[in-house]
Amino acid sequence: MHKFAELNSAQAAQLFAGYCAAQGLNVSAVVQRPDFAELYGDTEQLGAIEQEFGRFVQQPEHPRYQAAAWQLSQPAATESSAALPQMNILQWWQQAPFTCVILLLCLLVYVWQQLDWRSSSAALQLTEPAQLWRWFSPMLMHFSLTHLVFNLAWWLYLGRQLEQRLGSVLLLNIALTVALVSNAAQYFIVGPHFGGLSGVVYGLFGYFWLAGRLNPGQGLHISNGLAGFMLLWLLLGFFDLLWVSMANWAHLGGLVTGLLWAWLLRHQSARSIPASH
Q1: 3-state DSSP call for residue 197?
Q2: pLDDT tens, position by position, 58-95
Q3: Transmembrane segments in this chain: where (predicted)?
Q4: Which of 52, 85, 188, 228 is most buried by a 10 A CB count?
């Protein structure tokens, strides 16, 4: 991705990026503040993007841009309600298979936990460090439906974006590295009885937060509001002010590992995302 313009209106930048998406052009609007935004475009499409940008600058109020924004905001208007979920699931699997695999594994393990808590815990918790899979398997365990839904919502939101932008192999490497470090931190400092995907989620959050500053062209960003929420949740856990038991050291270990990955990949280019039809 290559930065080709700066605008003094975040709304205008997002409008142009939306129009380009409707035209099959890969453009990202990186909003720094309401009066300043950067535009990044696919290097291979840069000529066509700059040509469209020239037209936009001359006539930003042209109805074609509002029409494209409306079209993107109504993607399912012509689809039946029965076909829409199937289409979304198929698209998700095609665009982010590793994200979907982890999602399904967490759901299957949760069902196993409800049917046989003792055997699932004995097989997956980090109680036998010599068995190498146990350094990763706790990330698949969740101890309540709220715990499961919270973590999977964040995993889908962050993991899918990262996999689309950087590929399945990099997401696999990042997720497993973060899981290993976060589980090890919790194990050595507290003990083996913990579980959840939240260490990996904090790793992805750390990646998005720093990558958005070091390499905006990757198109991976997290808003200040969401970043503040995640950091507040981390602090509340360490001060034991929450109503649930938290794997605080797993969260912190994941966050630090995600930040390190973002620094290591600070020059990594994002791949193009094909336009949906």
Answers
A1: coil
A2: 877 776 665 655 455 444 333 333 333 444 667 777 78
A3: 96-115, 135-157, 169-188, 194-212, 224-243, 249-265
A4: 52
pLDDT higher than threshold 70 for residue 254: yes
**CA-to-CA distance for 231 and 244, rounded, in angstroms?**
17
Least confident of 103-117, 142-156, 159-173, 236-250: 236-250
Separation between Cα atoms, residue 263 and residue 247, nearest integer Å: 25
Between CA 24 and CA 35 the distance in angstroms is 27
DSSP 8-class letter at 269: P
Domains of the chain by start residue, with CATH: 2-73 (3.30.70.2350), 85-264 (1.20.1540.10)
The catalytic position among 120, 182, 198, 221 is 198
Is residue 71 a contact partner of residue 32, using CB atoms and an 8 Å limit?
no
**pLDDT-wise least confident of 46-50, 90-94, 172-176, 189-193:** 90-94
Nearest to 153 by CA among 208, 204, 211: 204
Active-site annotation holder among 251, 267, 272, 276: 251
User: Quick check: is 2 catalytic?
Assistant: no
- The span from the CA of 143 to the CA of 113, in Å, is 8
Tell me, yes or no, if 251 is annotated catalytic: yes
How far is the C-alpha of 209 from the C-alpha of 256, rounded, in Å? Answer: 11
Q: What is the pLDDT of residues 111-136, one digit of tens each?
A: 999 999 999 999 999 999 999 999 99
